[in-house]
Amino acid sequence: MPETVMPETTALPTRRGRPPVRSRQEQMASLLDAAAQALGSGNFANVTMDAIARAAGISKKTLYLLVPSKEALLSQLVARDLSTLELLLESGIDCAEDLLSELRMYLTLWARLTLSPLALGLYLLAAQGRETAPGLARIWYQEGAARCLSLLRGWLGKAAGKGLLAHEDVESAVELIDSLLISQPLKLFTLGVQQAWSDEQIEQRVEVTLGLFGRCFIHRSSTP
């Protein structure tokens, strides 16, 4: 029986088609990630819409279909971070121990977000552009810092309603926490004294803040 000769096969060239189409949500996530990376790098020359779009692999036309301006993009970036923070402080509190436990989690996450390279980059960008781009300062303060303080103020108000601290002490407590945990580190950063904070340093500052808060404001009768 004669040997069967198989025909030679030639590998077909790989077709180069268009890249898979990403959904609007995926494109927006890529933009936010690219903006966060640009801000966190400290190289503010790269914090332009064109540069962010290139880093995200998105055309300029698509960019402006997704978001109308840099301010709007950074506003969404701040909102994305705050969405995690807003999930806290939702559980019920019935005693001083619960209050301090929940507050510790909130303050730790708040400080980590505020003192992250991304947040510090946005803070400097807002400070540098306070005259030429006042919208950035509004985003940092009203949508970031002030929103965090408002969440804390509302939650402490609920705790006061349960007798865990006095209603008239809520604002003083908020100011104390902000001063120790946020404002003082930002001042050191602005002056160039300290450029970054480790998790350990943040946790130490949170414990100091909680200790002062507990001694100054929590009613002794509410302590189990």
UniProtKB/TrEMBL annotation:
All residue ranges annotated as the HTH tetR-type domain in the record: 25-85
Alphabetically ordered keywords of this record: DNA-binding
Stored Pfam families: TetR_C_7, TetR_N
InterPro entries listed in its UniProt record: Homeodomain-like_sf, HTH-type_TetR-like_transc_reg, HTH_TetR, TetR_C_Proteobacteria
Endpoints of the signal sequence: none
Region (Disordered): 1-24
DNA-binding region of this protein: 48-67
Superkingdom, taxonomy of origin: Bacteria
Coiled coil: none
Name assigned to this protein: TetR/AcrR family transcriptional regulator
Organism: Pseudomonas rhizophila
Phylogenetic placement of the source organism: Bacteria, Pseudomonadati, Pseudomonadota, Gammaproteobacteria, Pseudomonadales
